Amino acid sequence: MKNILEEIKIKAKALNKKIVLCEGEDSRVVKAAADATKEGVAQIVLLGDEQAIKKANPDVDLTDVTIVNPLTDEKLPVYNEKLCQLRASKGMTPDQAAKLLADGTYFGAMMLKMGDVDGLVSGACHSTANTLRPGLQIIKTAPGVSSVSSFNLMICPPQGNPYCPDGLVIFADCGLNPTYTSEGLADCAIATANSAKAIAGIDPKVAMLSFSTMGSAKHDNVTLVADAVKIAKEKAPELKLDGELQFDAAIVPSVAKLKAPQSEVAGQANVFIFPDLQAGNIGYKIAERLGGFMAVGPICQGFAKPLNDLSRGCKSEDIVAALAITALQAQL
Hints:
single chain, Rossmann fold, 2 domains, 11 strands, 44% helix, alpha/beta, 5-stranded parallel beta sheet, 13 helices, globular
């Protein structure tokens, strides 16, 4: 079976994007910076004090890794002024901006905002909120997108799966938004389809999941999904997207023929949009633990520029994978 992550790395290498890692104080991040640079996954900017980083990681070869100190960098005045402009409605002062920019993730977000890097990865030793807050305040959502969301690459087990001809499927949202409006769910579906094409290299067939198939049940939760389908089709009529669909109708051809015979997605879906975070989180963990799938993510989407949060339990190879994915998102 093809190695999905290696293919993602190969595609990232061809783009040669510049990605900032915000946590030079973490040895896993430092090793990932070195490994990603050696593999050519991206140009890496590592934030922190160069002497302290090298002293704490004497065996890591940081040749060709750019190390930037957020406390002393020459661009601090420019970033400070811009941050004050961006947060003027909140009464941001230069002193307040200086305190924020001392935080690596805020500094990295300003690098991204100003075009000095193409993407940002953080969160190895900080909370998700610490990564998302500067993203929402500085990078903000992409035009026409009502909210950010997340998705997981679900890579098939080595023995394969008859419902997984591409070697992987995509689940969303499994890690970010507890609840959705119909518009937000539609935006999540469109963003996930675009991510599926750019990152996984698959032709997305998007199933909007529910406990109902094409009106088989009546409930406000079903209506929310059905309305999201209408909005998504209006916003992106070119997408292969349908719903509402039960999971078996979305993935099993024989069930699809019975429950949704007119659908071009039913029975062959490879992108699954769950109606809320509870369902998505439970679903991906069932696939991971009982089905043997490898879950990569959650990966953020919907920001105006690529910004991704790491799990605090991540390994250095997980960070390299996140760097490669972030590089691919920079082409969207």
